[in-house]
Amino acid sequence: MDDKELVPPPLSLLDKYRGRDFQALYTTTVTVSGGETGHGRTSGIVRSDDGNLNLELRLPTEFGGPGDGTNPEQLFAAGFAACFHGALNLLVKRASMDAPGMAVQVQVSFGRDPMDGGYALVIDLRVQMPGIERSAAEELVRHAERLCPYAKMARQGTVNIVTVVD
């Protein structure tokens, strides 16, 4: 790793965007290919376009798999928790507060959906903000729910573009 000092993102990320069209600020591409079984969920490899993410996927033991790798639910929970923590941190800084022991825990459950008989995810998000009064913490969390794109996606859905390529 190089010697660059890590710094949080600027508070300007909290500024409202007034454009008419979606403005991408960052784009990444992740590819999953089937590993030894040819089935991505069972033995796939997940790689990001920059190479920083390179993991083996494994079916959890609850599905009869070996459980010796990560799975899509863990990856989603990690992304959600990191994004929500980041949004909350920006809001804490803007409020000139300090929350050194802040932690965000996201539990993702994969299961059967009684609405359509298929599958669904249930998300349980828990926030710890030691040293911040409960009412202030609850207000910050409400604002973070509106700011965090993962929370917004979970609440409203997202634009999905699905394309079959050669």
Can you offer a commentary on this structure?
This protein is an alpha+beta fold. It has two domains: 9-70, N-terminal domain of TfIIb (Single Sheet), CATH 2.20.25.10; 71-166, 2-Layer Sandwich (GMP Synthetase, Chain A, domain 3). Helices cover 30% and strands 19% of the residues. It is built from four helices and five strands, in the order E-H-E-E-H-E-E-H-H. The strands form two sheets. A three-stranded antiparallel β-sheet has the order 1-2-3, with no helix packed on it. The chain has a two-stranded antiparallel sheet with strand order 4-5. A hairpin with a 6-residue loop joins strand 4 and strand 5 (119-128). The radius of gyration is 19 Å and the shape is globular. 15% of the residues are buried. The mean pLDDT is 93.
Summarize the structure.
The chain is 30% helix and 19% strand.
Give the averaged pLDDT, no decimals. 93
Measured distance between first and last alpha carbons: 37 Å
Indicate the CATH architecture of the largest domain.
Answer: 2-Layer Sandwich
Strands in their spatial order, largest beta sheet: 1-2-3
Descriptive key words:
166 residues, GMP Synthetase, Chain A, domain 3, single chain, alpha+beta, N-terminal domain of TfIIb, globular, 3-stranded antiparallel β-sheet, 4 helices, two-stranded antiparallel sheet, 2 domains, 5 strands, 19% strand
Mind sketching the topology for me?
Blueprint: E1 30-33, H1 40-43, E2 45-48, E3 54-56, H2 72-94, E4 103-112, E5 119-128, H3 134-147, H4 149-156
Antiparallel strand pairs: 1-2, 2-3, 4-5
Helix pairs in contact: 2-3
